[in-house]
Each structure stands twice: as structure tokens, then as C-alpha cells.
Amino acid sequence: MNSDLLSGKLLSGKVVLVTGASSGIGAAAARVFSDEGATVVLVARREERLAELTGALRAGGAEAAYVAADVSVAEDAARAVDFAVTTYGRLDAAFNNAGIGGDRTPLHLMSDDVYDAIMDTNVRGVWNCLRHEIAAMLPQGAGAIVNNSSVAGLIAIPAAAPYIASKHAVVGLTRAAADEYARQGIRVNAVAPGTTRSEITTDWFARNPGLEELANSATPQGRTAAPEEIAAAAAWLLSDRCPFLTGTVLPVDGGLVNR
Asked: Catalytic site residues?
């Protein structure tokens, strides 16, 4: 590997799209990617939060912009990608992070509405983003995409069947896209976070006393991850430090899937 790839900031000079950027792992990714030299385009439904985060990044000297959009809507995903390309001239990388968790309910009691909402955001949202991001990257002959799956995309957890199905689907989309576009210079990987501090997990823990302790007891490191730890892994996968890595699902889980 060229020694130049091992020096400097991971994402220096890159234009990176981040979905689900208004909180949790997405907001952490915006900060981490900016610190690593990226120009970031932030995408989420909550415009007030996006504006606040974008302002904070700019105040710190970063180049940042935002698009209020719902990536489960194909036109919104297209608009976000078009904004990045129109504003900055290209799209080098993307972190498809937007997702929801849903209720923890036994499968036979789960409502169709919950199933549909989870699949629309977690699967259709990634599908919509992939289609438009890849289309933007193909003329460049290069690009890197990371999808946010979960350890629930690799194993099963109780009372969360639609969420598990959605995150397994993200793994499938990642591997399919990686195989299909490898020779066009586009790398597609995924991260599979373990228990990570976010609005989703905070809500789950509040509604299910003892759940965090149970999750931590199943994790060899015995703790909940900070969102920045997941963002750092995504930054590496999006960088030029791993040019021969595609189709990989990287567990960032404190060793959970080893058990």
C-alpha cells in the first residue's frame, strides 16, 4: 500500500453523505467524519436538529450542509444525493445510517404497522440511497458506501423479528451491491453495531428495565458502546486505507458475535 494512504486524515478532501444524521450514530458520524477532513452532507427528517448540528460543525471550521429528507421516500433520497453533487461537484462516500427500532414484542403479537414502518425505513431507505448514490459514483469510477446494519443482522435477539429481518436485509443489500459494482471502483461494506448509546436504545432501556444490564452481560467487554466508536469504524471503511475491502460486514460489538 502507498505510504501516503497511511498519513493524514482518513477522509481528507472527500464529500460524504450521512443519513439519519440528526441524532445518535448519525450525528456522531457527522462529527467524526468532519474531524477526519470530510465535507459532510447531513440528511434526516428533523430539520431543526440538522440545522443546529450543521451550524456547530461550521462554527468549528468544517464544511457542512444539510437536506431535510425522508430516505424511505425515493424522491427524497434522490434529492439528497442530487444536492450533494450539485453543491460540491461529486459524491465520494456515503454512510447509510438512517433506521428505527420499533417495539419489542413477540412475533405473533407484532402489528403490520410496526413491521411496515421498520422495513420502509431500515430496508427501503437503504435501497433508495444505494440506487442514487451508486448512480452518482459510477461516472467517477470510484466511491465507498457503508450501510449501518446491526448485530441483529448477524444473529437473533428476542422479541424483535421485524428489526432482525430488516438488518439481515441490509447485510444482503450490502453484499449484493459490493459484488455488482466492485469492478466499477465502488466499494460497499457494512458495520454491525452491538449495543450502542442512542435515542433508540435509550428508549428501549427506559421501557424495558434491566435490558441494558442484560445486553451488557452478553457482551464480552461488558458495556454499551458510544456512538463515536461506531462512527470511527465507518470512517475507516469509507477511507482509502482499505481499498481491497468490499462486501464485508464489520461487527463493532465488543465481541458479542464471538459468543
From this structure: 163
Cβ burial 154-181 (10 Å sphere, 16+ → b, else e): bbeeeebbbbbbbbbbbbebbbebbeeb
CA distances from 155 to 94, 124, 168, 182 (A): 25, 21, 9, 27
Residue pair 186/144 in contact by the 8 Å Cβ criterion = yes
| Gap between the Cα atoms of 68 and 46, Å rounded | 7
> What is residue 82's DSSP assignment?
H
Which residues of 25-164 form beta strands (DSSP E)? Answer: 39-44, 64-68, 93-96, 143-148
What is the model's pTM? 0.95
CATH T-level assignment (fold) for domain 10-258: Rossmann fold (3.40.50)
The domain limits of the chain are 10-258
Per-residue pLDDT of the chain (259 residues; tens, 9 = 90+): 454 456 689 999 999 999 999 999 999 999 999 999 999 999 999 999 999 999 999 999 999 999 999 999 999 999 999 999 999 999 999 999 999 987 789 999 999 999 999 999 999 999 999 999 999 999 999 999 999 999 999 999 888 999 999 999 999 999 999 999 999 999 999 999 999 998 878 887 888 888 889 889 999 999 999 999 999 999 999 999 999 999 999 999 999 999 8
